[in-house]
Amino acid sequence: MSDSLQNQNGGRTVAELQRRLADFAAARDWGQYHTPKNLVAALSVEAGELVEIFQWLTPDQSARVMADSASAARVEDEVADVLAYLLQFCEVLGVDALAALEAKIERNETRFPTSGNGHSME
Ligand SMILES: [Mg+2]
């Protein structure tokens, strides 16, 4: 993971957050459970929990979900769960998540060229 790729909230890197997650698990002897199969299953469960928040909302309600502090807190909590399991999954498999994302964006920019107005579906 490139240390030059930092978020804008305290300059923490993805690698630093992955280290904290690994240290947290190691301190509780949870590493034995962090197989790729278990982590990807946990990722899917947490993604489902994120979907559950939106399940019965109208499109307008879903667009305003962050306006309600309780709903916003639930969304942020599930986003954290999803990202934590994705980063742990990447760590055990040696996947550089940001490099994989950058490569995917570059492939998509080639696969789906714009027509000049920013709308490739026209
Ligand atoms: Mg959760």
TrEMBL record:
> Pfam families of this UniProt entry?
MazG-like (PF12643)
Point out the coiled-coil segments of this chain. none
Q: From which domain of life does this come?
A: Bacteria
Please report the name of this protein according to its UniProt entry.
Nucleotide pyrophosphohydrolase
Q: Which InterPro entries match?
A: dCTP_Pyrophosphatase, DCTPP
